[in-house]
Amino acid sequence: MSVLPILHWPDKRLSERCAHVGQRDMRPLIADMFDTMYAANGRGLAAPQVGVMKRLFVFDTTWKDGDKAPMVMIDPVVIACERIPVVMEEMCLSVPGLAVPVERHTAVTMQWTDETGDIHMGDFDGADARVIQHEFDHLNGKLHLDRIDPALRETLEKPWLAARA
Ligand code: NI
Predict the structure, then answer these.
(1) Could you give the CA distance from residue 116 to residue 84 in angstroms, rounded to a whole number?
(2) Does residue 157 have an active-site annotation?
(3) For the chain, how long is the longest CA-to-CA vector?
(4) Which class would CATH give 12-164?
(5) Distance between CA 70 and CA 43 in Å, rounded?
(6) Which of the residues 90, 103, 115, 135 is marked catalytic?
(7) Is the pTM here over 0.90, yes or no?
(8) How crowded is residue 71: how many other Cβ atoms within 10 Å of its Cβ?
(9) Lowest CB count within 10 Å: 24, 94, 118, 155, which one?
């Protein structure tokens, strides 16, 4: 197990659509992704953020409260969304230090495959729903910045890019 380097925006790979995993054994990568996510003090990490262009992500929304609950979703599908949109600030390990107010659904129903190949269906709300929607976006090459008003995006990203130049 090891901590992997995390790609930072505007790396082009963060804007690409990822490929299905299918029956491939992703367990070594998943272990590294959890190590990487916890080491970076994050609550979610998608495979493209470590340069693997496959449809899977890991998350754990409670570990910072002392209650580890690691979850992995392989080839996830959004089955349904609660239609009530809520705006909250989100951080992304690929855009470190930038808080972006993003509108998301309050609840989602997901279908996914786990690391052993079993298929699951489940309902998520609260922090889980938000993190799942954020990480799912990564699999389609979408960042939180891609979901906000262009004028607000410019206001937020210009100083962020300038500080890194
Ligand atoms: Ni992210």
Answers:
(1) 34
(2) no
(3) 45
(4) alpha beta
(5) 9
(6) 135
(7) yes
(8) 18
(9) 118
Q: For the chain, what are the domain ranges? A: 12-164
Tokens of 51: 């340069």
All residues with CB under 5 Å from ion ligand 1: 92
Cβ atoms of 106 and 87 within 8 Å: the answer is no
Task: Give the residue among 42, 71, 48 at the shortest CA–CA distance from 139.
Answer: 48
Amino acid at 51: G
121 Cα: distance to centroid of ligand 1 (angstroms): 23
Tens-digit pLDDT profile for the chain (165 aa)?
799 999 999 999 999 999 999 999 999 999 999 999 999 999 999 999 999 999 999 999 999 999 999 999 999 999 999 888 999 999 999 999 999 999 999 999 999 999 999 999 999 999 999 999 999 999 999 999 999 999 999 999 999 999 988
Half-sphere exposure of 44 (CA within 13 A, CB side): 22
CA distance 154 to 128: 28
